[in-house]
Every structure is written in C-alpha cells, then in structure tokens.
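Changelog-adjacent note: as of this version, every example in the card shows the full chain rather than a window. The one below runs 273 residues end to end.
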Amino acid sequence: MQPLASSPPATRDTTPADTCHVDVTTVAFFFDLDGTLAPLAPRPDAVRLPLDTANVLASLFHRACGAIAVVSGRAIDDIDGLLAPLRVPAAGLHGAEIRHADGERVRAEGYAVDAERIASMIAPLHALVAQHPGLLLENKGSALALHYRGAPELASVARDTMRALAELHAERFVLQPGKLVFELRARHVSKGRAITTLLQEAPFAGRTPLFAGDDLTDEAGFAEVNALGGITIKIGDGETCARHRLPSPEALTAWLLTLPPASPPPPSKENGA
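Full-length structure tokens:
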C-alpha cells in the first residue's frame, strides 16, 4: 500500500513564537495561506483574508524589502485573488508552480501538467460526490482535493478512494492528507523545495527563512527551514516538527504586528558620531 505523502511528524516541544527574535531586514518570510494567514472556512471558495492581516502583510512586504512569499496548496491565481491588491512571490499547488520576485511564472523542475490523468481521476470522484453530497471535490487543474469537512464521518471513504487512485497513478501522483481533506498532488514537488528555490534569489537570498503553516502539508516546509537554521511556526494544535507555535491565524497577525521596525543605520562620522 502506498504511504501517505506526509506521515505524522515526530512529537517535539514547541515554544511560543514571541520567544524568537525576528529582524525584518534579515528574515525571509514564507507563509501558508488557508489556516495560517486566513481562517479556514467550510468551503475553499468561502475563505477570506481578514482586512487586518492584509494590512499587516502589505506593511511587512515594504519593511522586508519584498522578502515575503506565500507557499500554498492553492493555485497562484487563487492566491492573488485572496491577497489582492497585494501581489507577492508565490509557490502554488504545493510548489508545482512558482512565481519569482521578478514576476516570472515557472513550473517546478521535472513537473508537467498531466491533464489526461487528472481527467481520468475526476470521473470516479464525481460519482462518489454524487453518492455522498457531504463531500466536496476541488479541481485545481493539476491536483485534486476531496474535502470531507461537511461530512467528517466519511473520512475513511474519502481516504480509501483517494488512496486507491494514488496507487493507480503512483508514478506521477501522491496522496497528501490535510485538515479534513485528502489531495492527489504531483509526486516530485513540496513546499520545502519551493522555499529552497525562492531562497536562491533576491530578495530572499542571504536571509534567514521563516515559515508559518498549519497543516500536514506544511511539514516538508518546516523540515527544510529547520535544516537551514531558520524559524518555523506551527499555527494551531497537532504534532509538528516546527519549533514554535501560535494558536490561530488571528494570533499570527497579532504577532506580526509586534515585530520591531528596522533598526536605523548608525550615524555617519560626518554627522558627528
């Protein structure tokens, strides 16, 4: 049987995020979206970015000289719709697509959209959703997500169906569990790889990475950032390899508001220093 893309991480103690020092001039900020910047909603299309969070992100984008990216399971177009009018570098579909700081959009190395396979997997999933109206199928174009938030009792049905499809298409797709969702995503992509890619270019290069996320889909990002000596923040409950924790998206926004402003440059000798 094919293993899940992200097994539950080893339990470790986390500390409150306000115990870590963050200098906005030397940190590269990476954020998950749903459940991290924006509260979860019954349906993906009902998620909204709170105004306070949008204002904080816009301010932080300026203070960090643009070193902010969203790394999400959503497509980049969806990310843009939720953050508008702010537009930031982004990795969509768990890193399958990346928009660099210069605006160029590329697909992850070795990744290609397999529309024929996606279409072959949609048919049985449509039939399942018709049989169980509490399930919701989300077609992301190059990934498929089966949500059971509206029918938690159907968790095993959703898992078994998606696992069977993952095993049938194992050379291209992997089963990714999440909060009340199972997703079929491209095998050779991850949020960790996406973060590493963005860290190789301006304005992220040379900065300490910080990644905040809330779900199993974010654990690969936590692991990569930990390995790089960065700062990792788990939003909400649950086992994680992140080193810090905040209880909710609202708490993340409040914490970002507390980050001190950039330190002014030292006075020059010409000014009498």
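Structural remarks: Residues 1-8 have pLDDT under 50 and may be disordered.
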